[in-house]
Amino acid sequence: MHFPTLFSPLDLGPFTVPNRLIMGSMHTGLEESPKHFGRLAEFFRSRAAGGAALIITGGVSPSDAGRAMPGGAAMLTEADVELHRCIPDAVHQAGGRICLQLLHTGRYGFHPKVISSTNAQAPISPFQPHALSAEEIQAEIASFAEASRLAEMAGYDGVEIMGSEGYFINQFTSPALNDRTDEWGGSADNRQRLAVEIVKAVKAVVSDNFLIIFRISLLDLVPKGTPWSEVASLAKKLEAEGVHLLNSGIGWHESRVPTIASMVPHAAFKDATSRLKSIVGIPVAVTNRINMPDQAEALLAEGLADMATMARPWLADANWGVKAEQGHAEEINTCIGCNQACLDHVFVGKSVTCLVNPYALNEHKLQVVPAAVPKSIAVIGGGVAGMSAAVEAAERGHKVSLYERNETLGGQFLLAAAIPGKEDYAQTLRYFKARLAALGVTVHLGVEVTAQDLKEAGVSTVILATGVRPRVPELPGVERANVVRYDQLLSGEVAPASSVAVIGAGGIGFDVCEFLLHCDAPVTATKDFLQHWGIDCEDDAQGGLVKPQPQHAHRRIVLCQRSTTKPGKSLGKTTGWIHRTALRMGGVEHLVGVEYLRIDDEGLWYRLDGVEQCLAVEQVVLCSGQVSELGLQESLIEAGLGVHVIGGADKAAELDAKRAIRQGVDVVMALSA
Ligand code: NAP
Ligand code: SF4
């Protein structure tokens, strides 16, 4: 049996789940509009069918003031019950269980009616909250009870009461915010009163078959936050009030410590969960950056937790659980923690999907159906665009050959996986390779294929995914030995020098700086990561924060750009701040608004504010964008082949793995109609 602990049943009290997999709460952007509930139901149904024993919905507010935004999701009336019914129904049809997450955003809400324990404004919201009176607090408690009653009416199997991540309940429990002088603030008992009263009120109105999960903030990761001793006392009170399962919450939205991005080591905060498990008798779930079954199995087998909560991994692969249970873990499409198509989309109001799995939340319009007329298709280029197209075409019954000039598949993702903190990008390559093998795609490595070869092989259609080559700027001295391209550095072809100028402050320029900071001083092991960012999972530090002990290489790094915009402006919304902070911690210097003049023995010459100066560095790394690699296109067209260009070969200016993988799916769908 594969992963025997992970796939053993667990009695949660109200019911028994067949395995230990929880699909954690994620905001999908669909919770807000009932017209999308059918789509949401299909999303959850497919994850239940794919092995998630217990699903938790995206956050739904129990009260008007607790909404995340104007018109944000809320469970307030029996009319809402009718709208929600299709969601638990769909999950139950697939044999799963689903709980509604009750998320009261408190001062994090993005609207003028926000409320909290305090009138102190959140650093991530433009609205000042109203500090609730004791009477108003009672009304909010009652709203949790009513929303739970309605959730049970709608067919949900339980609720998860969101008590972490800096939301409403956490705004009362944490000493970082709650300086009230009434019975709802001050002492730990008073601050914890809201959480306890909410659980009591909910228990009073739901049946014994209804599961109550509480997501407890194990580490606030904000200054003056909750110390472990108070987390422990709250956990014991919640257990005494009848909570069935404690889910781990790590960090607040305003924390300046990464908690879910790709550079966070797998299960980095497991010791906090382990502590929780040691003091309560009810089941606990471990969270954050668990993305493969061997990790989850090891945590559970060690007895560190009873269940494993994963959220984004279920976006990346609907069948995560089934593949793991049936011994096909190598075919799991692994979440790489990039946030580029999930959380980053939430913040710009775009519907959530997944970079590595464009099918996520598009299940209603993307389906794998056999091609009307199977073709003989050649895919040229084995980066993620080409591999995506090859897998998609083979899934739809086409005869597919994949040609890659290098000896290894992967393209730009191979380079990305060399960046410290982006090691998981290699998982995407492992996934595609496993699928190509399982689908019987013929893969030709180290081959410069020609139009003539393809004609002779009987190919009718070519998907050209030949990617990009780095742009080399026209700059005197650019051909010198002290100038290297980013791909030469990241592939190990050239070693980094002890003083380096990086030309180009786009995503790759930032990545190269991280490489220069950490290639010889890694912080990828959990212990190093926790020390680097100043996280305490063992003592009683307030908010779990201690003095950071940053580790980085002792080399001078200067990141240069011609534009005068803020460095890192183009980076992802939810990860850009981490990259900027990491570079600041590592002492990376920025040169903004420069005009490059030449490179010589002395270093990089530039003009800034009309003054010509030399940056005395031993090495200059070019991260100045890319140009499309389209060398084959003309000869293929001349040979009469149908040519479809995707990925970086199509558009180098916005080199983007999300677009590349999606284009691989789209082009094959169009060819299969
Ligand atoms: P890029 O945005 O093309 O950055 C290259 C930078 O080089 C430009 O911003 C430009 O900045 C500079 N440049 C362009 N032409 C130049 C020239 N002739 N001479 C000197 N400098 C020149 O993107 P990239 O860094 O190559 O990354 C490629 C893609 O991958 C981007 O779409 C990026 O979003 C994505 N990516 C994202 C991440 C992430 O979000 N963490 C990481 C890696 C890659 P100035 O004009 O200001 O000098
Ligand atoms: Fe994971 Fe990235 Fe997909 Fe989000 S977009 S689920 S972080 S792989």
From TrEMBL:
Residue stretches making up the NADH:flavin oxidoreductase/NADH oxidase N-terminal domain: 6-330
GO MF, one example: FMN binding
Domain FAD/NAD(P)-binding as annotated: residue spans: 376-629
UniProt KW keywords: Flavoprotein, FMN, Iron, Iron-sulfur, Metal-binding, Oxidoreductase
Necessary cofactors: FMN; [4Fe-4S] cluster
InterPro entries: Aldolase_TIM, FAD/NAD-bd_sf, FAD/NAD-binding_dom, NADH:flavin_oxidoreductase, OxRdtase_FMN_N
Alphabetical list of Pfam families matching this protein: Oxidored_FMN, Pyr_redox_2
Family, per entry: In the N-terminal section; belongs to the NADH:flavin oxidoreductase/NADH oxidase family.
Protein name, UniProt field: NADPH-dependent 2,4-dienoyl-CoA reductase
